[in-house]
């Protein structure tokens, strides 16, 4: 009986290397897709644009985030955070300045509140402080961790 | 004499090209990963906010809680059912207050209880796990959609009572209502803040029969 050719056993198999390559590629693609999904989904920054009503003159919004304990006033160059205890009779002087500023521009500006779920309970008390000074108020409920920014309205 | 065939000599191939290909591919995909993360990280999803305006349309109320939308359009019927055993010929029965406070009525989606604290009010709470979730709203047969489909956008607007647990559902529902040219309005409620429908002895801040 002839001996079997043992050349096949000496053949160098490249399949494991291709498997490694495909595994690495698959993992990296998964990471890429996950990062993109998170960045464009739950982690995406929301850019708020106010609808233009041609029948009415619109005012300029000043965005204030409210989470029940801290008001974050978004400025063009920086954000200012003001811890507020609404039960106390007096507001922090820095926040009173914000209200005074808005009150002085009440004809052209209004306060737009982004209200987090943790701030629903006492939001209307905060809004009342602004309304009492003749400042128009708008609000939008927003998820707790969602990042938001004001975007310029299209002309 | 049988001559054995010469066994072919095995030459171990160089793995350098394979390693080269592997590192090149990994490098390119890493580059794509970095590019994607940087690009997507700076992405901003635009959301248009409706501007407040006055309307002569009347409200159709929906409750947004626990990630669900509950229609309160037909709240009159459960309230009548709640009050029916407590009234006789349109007047309160003798032990009205006691029976009112202990009365509890469950509908398909809501739980109604009586509360007497200065004013006589019916507290309305959503029944856990009932009605439609935000995902259900995408179905064309969703009750929320069919309710709106039967209404005139010039005569009615959608009013949402939003609880902290219902923000996502509210935003989905409002988008649907707005796309159907309905006006929308909303009120925010704290997690422990019940919806009170005052039916008697309503104070200056009382609701006088309307919600909140």
- One letter per element, helices H and strands E, the order of chain A comes to HHEEEEHEHEE
Global Rg of chain B: 31 Å
How helical, in percent, are the residues of chain B? 25-40%
* Number of DSSP strand runs of chain B: 12
Could you characterize the architecture of this molecule?
The complex is a heterodimer of chains A (155) and B (212). Helix content of chain A is 35%, strand content 25%. With 155 residues, chain A is of the alpha/beta class. Chain A has two domains: 8-40; 46-150, Nucleotidyltransferase, domain 5. A five-stranded mixed sheet of chain A has the order 4-3-2-5-6, covered by helices on one side. In chain A, strand 5, helix 4 (120-131) and strand 6 form a beta-alpha-beta unit. The longest helix of chain A has 26 residues, at 15-40. The N and C termini of chain A lie far apart (91 Å). The mean pLDDT of chain A is 83. The longest helix of chain B has 26 residues, at 16-41. Chain B has helices at 16-41, 76-83, 96-102, 143-149, 167-179; strands spanning 44-49, 58-65, 68-71, 87-88, 91-92, 104-106, 110-117, 119-126, 132-133, 156-162, 184-188, 195-200. Chain B is 29% helix and 29% strand. In chain B, strand 10 (156-162), helix 5 (167-179) and strand 11 form a beta-alpha-beta unit. A five-stranded mixed sheet of chain B has the order 9-3-2-10-11, covered by helices on one side. A four-stranded antiparallel sheet of chain B has the order 6-7-8-12. Chain B has a domain at 58-200. Chain B has 212 residues and is an alpha+beta fold. The interface between A and B is large, with 49 and 47 residues.
